């Protein structure tokens, strides 16, 4: 569970409500954080599927860690200062256990997305909280 500082990150993700739009997508490939990054989000370049304009949907709630695809094929990981609603398809959601990693990603860093079930994501978070509490017993997350 110790963080290794490098130029690559493996982010655990659960399916978003629009995950079916990326069915058959090769999740083992590496993606790269582009220079288009700030406190609202990080553009992630790579071989994302191109979406049809009909894939756009009405605005819906979106949370930090959400990964949205645009019709142009760009993908964005939303960060803490991102909007609270969005109309682009929400295909993946970075698990809460990895939210602290998002602020460490720099342009040029490589990113892999590891698919998790909601149950596995809950187990990951419990494990991480237990690890942190072994260092700081009074920690509340």
From TrEMBL:
Named from the GO MF annotations, one term is:
hydrolase activity
Q: Which UniProt key words apply to this protein? A: ATP-binding, Hydrolase, Nucleotide-binding
Which residues does the UniProt record annotate as the domain Carboxyltransferase? Answer: 1-132
Q: Which Pfam families match?
A: CT_A_B
Superkingdom of the organism of origin: Bacteria
Protein species of origin: Hyphomonas jannaschiana VP2
* Signal peptide residues on this chain, from the entry's feature table: none
Which Gene3D superfamilies would you find in this protein's record? Answer: Cyclophilin-like
Q: What is this protein called?
A: Allophanate hydrolase subunit 2
């Amino acid at each position: 569970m110790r963080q290794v500082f490098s130029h690559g990150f493996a982010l655990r993700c659960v399916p978003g409500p629009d995950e079916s739009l990326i069915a058959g997508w090769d999740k083992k490939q590496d993606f790269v954080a582009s220079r288009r990054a700030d406190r609202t989000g990080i553009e992630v370049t790579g071989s994302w599927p191109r979406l049809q304009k009909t894939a756009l949907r009405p605005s819906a709630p979106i949370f930090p860690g959400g990964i949205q695809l645009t019709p142009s094929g760009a993908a964005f990981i939303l960060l803490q200062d991102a909007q609270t609603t969005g109309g682009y398809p929400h295909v993946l959601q970075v698990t809460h256990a990895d939210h602290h990693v998002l602020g460490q990603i720099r342009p040029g860093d490589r990113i892999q997305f590891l698919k998790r079930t909601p149950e596995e994501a809950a187990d990951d978070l419990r494990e991480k909280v237990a690890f942190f509490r072994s260092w700081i017993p009074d920690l509340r997350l």
